[in-house]
Specification:
This is MerR family transcriptional regulator. The chain has twelve helices and three strands, in the order βααββαααααααααα.
């Protein structure tokens, strides 16, 4: 059996993380010595591997705990699921690497890229920030949005993506004007209405979403692919929109 420090060194995570998993009863070591040292068995390590696979795929700890504690949980079946999801993730990353390489060549004048080619590899059908949205805005808004998207036909989903893309492109064009200007506020109203067509976002939630665009670099990097500074512009414009419409 291994002590907590040995497990941490073996896996490459912190001792504090293992302590936290124990405290929330996600991974309880099989034994604890009289001196209070946690001792982890091979079964514990197998469970830890499952936890870290789920974490790599973006699952929150609360959901992981529910999954692995379910009597019907099958480790082999879970590993097969991990494999298929990781292969899908690798495929998407490979496509994005190709897109990056082609974009570099395009910038250097070596090739010409169509607008469609510039966004190959991006996949908005899986939202990596869903947990942050749930924690910030509550389950209801996120569940309603997910349910509406899932009910869409392929054609409706394509139209949805095209509308999303059109709004962002329009905002990217005007991102250098004052966020409080009539033109900027009209563009942001389109975004607000779009979100509320698929969910139920209050003005405060809308403003909070804008703040996430600049506070979380993952959001910033994705949004700024439409134009550098777009995330900052949207954050300011969304804040103005929310404040003005609450009066």
């Amino acid at each position: 059996m291994l002590r907590v420090k040995e497990v941490a060194d073996l896996v490459g995570i912190s001792v504090r993380t293992l302590h936290h998993y124990d405290e929330i009863e996600l991974l309880i070591p099989d034994k604890t010595t009289e001196a209070g040292y946690r001792l982890y068995s091979d079964d514990n390590l197998e469970t830890l591997q499952q936890i870290l696979f789920f974490r790599e795929l973006g699952f929150p700890l609360k959901e992981i705990k529910q999954i692995i504690n379910n009597p019907s949980f099958d480790k082999k079946e879970a590993l097969e699921l991990h494999r298929s999801m990781l292969l899908e993730k690798r495929s998407r990353l490979d496509q994005m690497i190709v897109t990056v390489e082609k974009t570099i060549q395009h910038m250097e004048g070596g090739i010409q890229m169509s607008n469609k080619e510039k966004f190959e590899g991006f996949d908005f059908s899986h939202n990596p920030y869903e947990q942050e949205a749930r924690e910030r805005f509550g389950d209801q808004a996120v569940n309603e949005a997910n349910a509406k998207v899932q009910r869409m036909s392929n054609e409706e989903q394509r139209a949805f993506s095209e509308q999303f893309d059109a709004i962002y492109k329009k905002l990217a064009v005007i991102r250098h004007i004052a966020p409080e200007s009539d033109e900027a506020q009209a563009g942001i109203r389109d975004w607000y209405n779009f979100l509320n067509n698929i969910g139920n976002y209050s003005l405060d939630a809308f403003k909070g979403l804008g703040e996430m665009y600049v506070n979380d670099k993952r959001f910033t990097n994705n949004i700024d692919q439409y134009g550098e500074g777009l995330a900052q512009f949207m954050c300011k414009a969304m804040g103005v929109f929310a404040d003005e419409n609450k009066k």
